[in-house]
Design a protein that fits this description.
mainly alpha; two-stranded antiparallel ribbon; single chain; elongated; 70% helix
Length: 144
Protein backbone atom coordinates (compact mmCIF):
# COMPACT_ATOMS: atom_id res chain seq x y z
CA UNK A 1 0.00 0.00 0.00
CA UNK A 2 2.85 2.40 0.79
CA UNK A 3 4.48 1.52 -2.51
CA UNK A 4 1.26 2.32 -4.34
CA UNK A 5 1.01 5.64 -2.52
CA UNK A 6 4.64 6.46 -3.33
CA UNK A 7 4.01 5.67 -7.02
CA UNK A 8 0.90 7.88 -6.97
CA UNK A 9 2.79 10.80 -5.42
CA UNK A 10 5.72 10.38 -7.80
CA UNK A 11 3.50 10.73 -10.87
CA UNK A 12 4.14 13.91 -12.82
CA UNK A 13 0.63 15.35 -12.52
CA UNK A 14 0.57 15.17 -8.73
CA UNK A 15 4.02 16.71 -8.42
CA UNK A 16 3.12 19.46 -10.92
CA UNK A 17 -0.03 20.23 -8.95
CA UNK A 18 1.89 20.38 -5.65
CA UNK A 19 4.48 22.75 -7.12
CA UNK A 20 1.68 24.87 -8.58
CA UNK A 21 -0.07 25.15 -5.22
CA UNK A 22 3.13 26.14 -3.42
CA UNK A 23 4.05 28.74 -6.02
CA UNK A 24 0.44 29.98 -6.08
CA UNK A 25 0.49 30.54 -2.32
CA UNK A 26 3.75 32.47 -2.55
CA UNK A 27 2.44 34.45 -5.51
CA UNK A 28 -0.74 35.32 -3.58
CA UNK A 29 1.37 36.84 -0.82
CA UNK A 30 3.22 38.95 -3.38
CA UNK A 31 -0.02 40.15 -4.98
CA UNK A 32 -1.57 40.97 -1.60
CA UNK A 33 1.48 43.05 -0.76
CA UNK A 34 1.43 44.76 -4.14
CA UNK A 35 -2.25 45.63 -3.83
CA UNK A 36 -2.15 46.57 -0.16
CA UNK A 37 1.18 48.40 -0.12
CA UNK A 38 1.40 49.88 -3.64
CA UNK A 39 -1.95 50.03 -5.43
CA UNK A 40 -4.25 50.75 -2.50
CA UNK A 41 -2.42 53.95 -1.47
CA UNK A 42 -2.41 55.20 -5.08
CA UNK A 43 -6.13 54.50 -5.51
CA UNK A 44 -6.78 56.07 -2.13
CA UNK A 45 -4.85 59.17 -3.19
CA UNK A 46 -7.07 59.62 -6.24
CA UNK A 47 -10.21 59.02 -4.16
CA UNK A 48 -9.36 61.58 -1.50
CA UNK A 49 -7.23 59.54 0.86
CA UNK A 50 -9.64 56.60 1.29
CA UNK A 51 -7.94 53.44 2.52
CA UNK A 52 -10.06 50.54 1.27
CA UNK A 53 -8.80 48.18 3.94
CA UNK A 54 -10.44 50.35 6.61
CA UNK A 55 -13.71 51.08 4.82
CA UNK A 56 -16.56 49.47 6.72
CA UNK A 57 -19.99 50.06 8.17
CA UNK A 58 -20.73 49.29 11.82
CA UNK A 59 -23.83 47.11 12.02
CA UNK A 60 -23.98 46.85 15.80
CA UNK A 61 -21.77 47.79 18.71
CA UNK A 62 -19.83 50.86 19.76
CA UNK A 63 -16.80 51.93 17.73
CA UNK A 64 -14.84 55.14 18.12
CA UNK A 65 -15.04 57.57 15.23
CA UNK A 66 -12.21 56.98 12.75
CA UNK A 67 -11.29 53.60 14.23
CA UNK A 68 -9.65 51.05 11.98
CA UNK A 69 -11.36 47.84 10.92
CA UNK A 70 -9.07 45.87 13.21
CA UNK A 71 -9.95 48.08 16.18
CA UNK A 72 -13.66 47.71 15.41
CA UNK A 73 -13.37 43.94 15.29
CA UNK A 74 -11.34 43.88 18.52
CA UNK A 75 -14.08 45.96 20.17
CA UNK A 76 -16.51 43.18 19.27
CA UNK A 77 -18.59 45.28 16.88
CA UNK A 78 -20.36 43.63 13.96
CA UNK A 79 -18.96 45.30 10.87
CA UNK A 80 -19.78 45.17 7.17
CA UNK A 81 -16.24 45.33 5.74
CA UNK A 82 -16.92 46.06 2.10
CA UNK A 83 -13.47 47.63 1.66
CA UNK A 84 -11.82 44.29 2.39
CA UNK A 85 -14.14 42.71 -0.18
CA UNK A 86 -13.10 45.31 -2.79
CA UNK A 87 -9.46 44.51 -2.03
CA UNK A 88 -10.17 40.78 -2.48
CA UNK A 89 -11.71 41.50 -5.89
CA UNK A 90 -8.68 43.59 -6.91
CA UNK A 91 -6.36 40.77 -5.76
CA UNK A 92 -8.36 38.23 -7.76
CA UNK A 93 -8.34 40.34 -10.93
CA UNK A 94 -4.57 40.86 -10.72
CA UNK A 95 -3.87 37.17 -10.05
CA UNK A 96 -6.22 36.10 -12.86
CA UNK A 97 -4.55 38.53 -15.27
CA UNK A 98 -1.04 37.33 -14.42
CA UNK A 99 -2.11 33.67 -14.74
CA UNK A 100 -3.70 34.51 -18.11
CA UNK A 101 -0.46 36.14 -19.27
CA UNK A 102 1.58 33.10 -18.13
CA UNK A 103 -0.74 30.64 -19.90
CA UNK A 104 -0.70 32.82 -23.01
CA UNK A 105 3.11 32.85 -22.99
CA UNK A 106 3.33 29.07 -22.48
CA UNK A 107 0.89 28.50 -25.35
CA UNK A 108 2.96 30.74 -27.64
CA UNK A 109 6.11 28.79 -26.75
CA UNK A 110 4.33 25.49 -27.46
CA UNK A 111 3.03 26.80 -30.81
CA UNK A 112 6.52 28.00 -31.78
CA UNK A 113 7.97 24.60 -30.90
CA UNK A 114 5.28 22.84 -32.94
CA UNK A 115 5.89 25.16 -35.91
CA UNK A 116 9.65 24.56 -35.80
CA UNK A 117 9.04 20.80 -35.82
CA UNK A 118 6.76 21.14 -38.85
CA UNK A 119 9.22 23.39 -40.67
CA UNK A 120 12.17 21.08 -40.04
CA UNK A 121 13.20 19.60 -43.37
CA UNK A 122 12.48 15.96 -43.88
CA UNK A 123 15.47 13.69 -44.20
CA UNK A 124 16.58 13.59 -47.82
CA UNK A 125 16.02 10.34 -49.64
CA UNK A 126 19.15 8.25 -49.90
CA UNK A 127 21.03 9.15 -53.05
CA UNK A 128 21.38 6.35 -55.52
CA UNK A 129 20.33 5.40 -58.96
CA UNK A 130 16.84 6.42 -59.94
CA UNK A 131 14.25 4.03 -61.28
CA UNK A 132 14.98 5.12 -64.82
CA UNK A 133 18.71 4.53 -64.37
CA UNK A 134 18.03 1.00 -63.10
CA UNK A 135 15.71 0.21 -65.99
CA UNK A 136 18.27 1.55 -68.45
CA UNK A 137 20.98 -0.66 -66.93
CA UNK A 138 18.70 -3.71 -67.08
CA UNK A 139 17.86 -2.98 -70.73
CA UNK A 140 21.51 -2.56 -71.64
CA UNK A 141 22.43 -5.76 -69.79
CA UNK A 142 19.72 -7.71 -71.61
CA UNK A 143 20.82 -6.26 -74.97
CA UNK A 144 24.32 -7.71 -74.54
Amino acid sequence: MLGEFRDFIAKGNVMDMAVGIIIGAAFTAIVKSMVGDLLNPIVGLFLGGIDFTNVFVVLSGEVAEGASLEAAREAGAAVFAYGAFIMAIINFVIIAFVVFMLVRYVNKVKEAAARSEEEAPAEPAPSGPSEIDLLTEIRDALAK
